[in-house]
Design brief:
The structure is a single chain. By secondary structure, the protein is α/β, with parallel strands linked by helices. Strands 1-10-9-8-7-6-5-2-3-4 form a ten-stranded mixed sheet, with helices on both faces. Strand 3, helix 3 and strand 4 form a beta-alpha-beta unit. Helix 2 runs parallel beside helix 12, helix 10 packs across helix 11 and helix 11 packs across helix 12. The radius of gyration is 18 Å and the shape is globular. It starts with a strand and ends with a helix. The model has no long low-confidence stretch (mean pLDDT 96).
Length: 296
């Protein structure tokens, strides 16, 4: 299969922004569970959750370290919170939600919780949209390294009932592929994605999106040096999670999130030397309304 590349643009993205019916209610727009934020990285959990809420998720729940609960209650009253040491509550929530985001600030030593997540989603009867980011990608890479014959779907979705989205930066990509697929080898990346059965968001100066068994990859031309700030990836992951419950096609939600993330960042960069992830989150509803009204 010959792979072609398409640049994301404003005209195409405008068509992806969902129109809400007059009688819309929260249960139509997805329930997201975010499992993120150990005691040292509560900010990652906050940034991911803020992005999810501002992207329009109908309901957002965060499972996090107890040290983060007071801060998140204060900053994000829209989100529901559970202590991630409450194994029963975490398991029950995974079985209840539509979208699951795991990884921002998760930590590499949280192995019992990681095992619980994998076991629960592998046995879940619901069809989940699962976004793996940051430490979840590194833990997944370690699982794959233990058994090189294992595939991601075998680990997380043995019946192929779940949609999985991976959001690695260059270093995480090297670990996921054990250095066997270069980040500039488009055909090799597409083959890997086809075998893995996952949507891939390969982050970089020009982020690229690969969808299983599609002859097209998508390049995002936006972005700027001011966005080279800790927490940008957490925000993007939260945006994907927030939009995944609002669009029929998960790949469209990914494309919209990736484009919006840099579109807002580029607007901020016109006036700010450094673009903060929290600034991007606050602008998401405004940008979506602005684009939806644009005459193109």
């Amino acid at each position: 299969m010959t792979l072609s590349k398409v640049d994301l643009n404003l005209t195409a993205v405008k068509r992806l922004i969902p129109v809400r019916d007059e009688d819309a209610y929260k249960n139509l727009f997805g329930h997201v569970l975010i499992i993120a934020g150990n005691h040292a990285m509560g900010g990652a959990a906050q940034l991911a959750t803020m992005a999810t809420v501002n992207s329009g998720a109908g309901l957002t729940t965060i499972a996090t370290d107890s040290a983060n609960l007071p801060a998140i209650h204060t900053v994000l009253p829209e989100a529901m919170i559970i202590d991630w040491t409450d194994v029963f509550a975490v398991k029950k929530m995974i079985e209840k939600v539509d979208i699951l985001l795991v990884g921002p600030g998760f930590g590499m030593d949280n192995l019992d919780l990681w095992k619980l997540i994998k076991t629960t989603i592998a046995s879940s009867k619901r069809s989940l949209k699962i976004i793996l980011d940051a430490d979840a990608l590194n833990l997944l890479a370690a699982d794959l390294a233990e058994d090189e014959d294992k595939k991601i779907q075998e680990l997380l979705s043995p019946d192929n009932q779940h949609e999985i989205i991976l959001t690695p930066h260059q270093g995480e990509w090297r670990r996921l592929t054990a250095g066997k697929v270069r980040a500039d080898d488009q055909e090799g990346i597409q083959n890997w994605v086809d075998q893995a059965g996952t949507i891939l968001v390969l982050k970089g100066s020009s982020t690229e999106i690969y969808v299983p068994n599609e002859p097209v990859s998508y390049r995002n031309p936006g972005g700027n040096p001011g966005m080279a700030t800790g927490g940008m990836g957490d925000t993007l992951a939260g945006m994907i999670a927030g939009l995944a419950g609002q669009l029929n096609k998960t790949a469209d939600a990914v494309k919209l999130a990736v484009f919006l993330h840099s579109y807002i960042g580029d607007q901020q960069y016109e006036y700010h030397y450094v673009v903060l992830p929290s600034q991007i989150s606050k602008q998401i509803p405004y940008a979506m309304k602005e684009i939806s009204k644009k005459e193109i």
